[in-house]
Amino acid sequence: MAVTRNLYDALVQLRRCQRIRQGFKLWIDAICINQDDLIERGRQVTRMRDIYQSAWQVVIWAGPEADESSVALTALHWLARQSKKENPFAGFYREGKMINASPLFMVWPSYESPIEKKVYRALFDFFSRAYWQRMWIIQEVAAGRSETPVLCGDKCISWDDLIRASQLISRDEARFGRDILNTNLAYTIPPWSFDFAKDRQPEQRQFSSERMWKTEMTMMEIQRNQQSRDPTSSWNELTQALTLVREASVTEERDRVYGILGIKAVADNLVWNNEPDYEISVDELWKSFTAGFLAAGNMSILRLVSRYAGPRNIGQKTVNDLHPRLKLPWLGPLVLWVMNSTTSAGNSPEVGTPCVHNIPSWTVCWSCAPAPTAPLTGPYHADAGLGQSIPILPAPNSSLAIKGVVLDTIDSLSSSNEKEADTRYPWNSSSSQGNLYGDLDAVRQAFWKTIVGDTTSQGGIKAPEDYAWLLHPRLWQKGVAGIYTYGFGLHIFMARNQDLRLCGYTLEEIIFGQNKWISRVRLAIGDSFYDPSETQREAFSWAINAMAWRRLFGTKDGRMGLGTCAAKINDKIVLLRGCNTPLILRKFNGGWKLIGECYTHGVMYGEVTAKEDELVDITIY
Q: Which Pfam families match (predicted)?
């Protein structure tokens, strides 16, 4: 029998296992399913969850020994042991002194790790293995247990130890995690800097923590939910699985649906009686899959309808454009400065992929990549005052009729990034703008909550009051010293959007006050914000991640919000029964076209109420 080299290597290792020698049988999809028979393949896919759950053990085969993977597993075992200590890195780093003579100058503390660079490189190569991006691994891991063995060559680590190691790296991401990433990509920023919003930059995503050890951490959350006896799964548990699906590597696009039907978070929120059909068109499958969530009364699935961002002005070269010999921390910035000073600007392609599928606007496309926004996972229940959600089925013409409230009209929009090529943004309409929040202090309170979606990067809770620090004028004038933001810094946002009007005030007035020029002059004398606390760094990081590739908007009635980069002036803010956030809709063919989700301050927790006879029919094509 002909098998792939990867499978051959796995079989060679597995036959050394004592249990296999005792007579335990192996079930391997590539052998046990005729991959060339689409009918059999579809039939067997429905049994995958039962097969995994009935197995004595699920084995994760990460691949053969390569790129010092044995060194990586040794390091992961050490990290797992260290994670059980109260202070895992006590005495580990040799730290230099910090000299704070701001605003004149500042010498940042340096640290020296005793671990050789080849260990960090081995960890980078292990976490960036193609295996971790495969579609089917989501179901494999979900069906496993904490003691599930992870095999890599002839070395092994338990899934629990791998997760412990990943969590420890995440806790020390500014040092240990950064050293892992630095082994592959020399930074064009000084080595003492933090760097935030890396995962929002399309050119840098594959080198970010979210695409490496945090992938395993997300899979661990899915596994825990899979083993839960709770009869329902939350929205955040569902989106964790669906986000991995959207970014996974597949050889067959239909597996983005069929490969996760056995995931509890999906099954709990879905009505699905269809047999897997590998001959159905992808367009029809995407529509049926979205309709399955709607049939369960879960209108929040519409939040995942998302769009790409428009072109950016470019001409700015990045580290990826440099020859490897020039990618040195001390040389790279100088070379890039010269290149960018002599390069003419142009427009880059869109950020994300324009959808090429013939699907209604309410259908979630799982193939075409949206702009790389950070998910907003606050404890939202904007529809709480609209009554009980009911199942919805699409009409024969593929339209969707849902009860809801047309709440407001967008009449001002920020740019979605500093280099957006469309010069209309920031865009203020000529209509007068109300203010539902009160005086300037109330507007400022609404503003800082809006730019973080009133939540944290972990989600599930409201943003703490400490995040009000984000209103500090120096953040919007000079930024934070020692933090690189890939063009998404608050001071960079202010430079382009200072005239944006929100609730009757300009952005500049909201931050600097109505005597803005006096404030600006005072701030200009000083320097960037120095030495923020851990909570302040967390707030700053989350704000720029949440805002990246989204637009701040103001409304005609005087609300403000944060929404999809595809929003336009005169789009409507709509609440739908069964959807836990507002949506942005656009008039289309006598009905509506769905543009995307949004955070709208003041309506996220059931503040808007309406009786059944006060709801209107909203038809989405």
A: HET, Het-6_barrel
The mean pLDDT of 203-218, rounded to a whole number, is 83
User: Within this chain, do residues 496 and 616 fall inside the same structural domain, yes or no?
Assistant: yes
- Report the pLDDT averaged over residues 245-257: 90
Q: Helix, strand or coil for residue 173?
A: helix
The alpha carbon torsion through 436, 442, 444, 449 (nearest 10 deg) reads: -80
Domain that holds residue 206: 41-227
167, 202, 227 — which closes off a domain? 227
435 assigned to some structural domain? yes
- How far is residue 508's CA from residue 428's CA, in Å, rounded to a whole number? 14
Q: Do 593 and 477 lie in a common domain?
A: yes
Q: What is the DSSP string of 70-119?
A: HHHHHHHHHHHHHTTSSSTTTTTSEEPPPEEETTTEEEPPPEE-SS-HHH
Distance (Å, whole) CA 95 – CA 93: 6
* Domain-located, residue 232: no
Task: Count structural domains, the chain.
Answer: 3
**CA–CA separation, 161 and 166 (whole Å):** 9
> Residue 160, SS3?
helix
| Rounded-to-integer distance, Cα 315 and Cα 309, Å | 18
Residue identified by tokens 């930074």 is: 187
Percent of the chain with pLDDT over 70: 88
pTM listed for this prediction: 0.87
Angular region, 540: left φ>0, alpha ψ -120 to 50, beta rest: alpha
Within a domain: 256: no
* 139-155 residue pLDDT tens: 888 888 888 899 999 89
Q: Tell me if 374 is assigned to some domain.
A: no
Burial 377-411 (b: 16+ CB within 10 A, else e): bbbbebbebbbebeebebeeeebbebbbbebbbbb
Q: What is the pLDDT of residues 381-412, one digit of tens each?
A: 999 999 988 999 999 999 999 999 999 999 99
Section 266-273 average pLDDT? 93
Helix (H) or strand (E) holding 156: strand 155-158
Segment holding 147, helix H or strand E: none
Gyration radius from the chain CA atoms:
26
467 secondary structure, DSSP code:
G
- Name the nearest CA neighbour of 313 among 347, 351, 350: 347
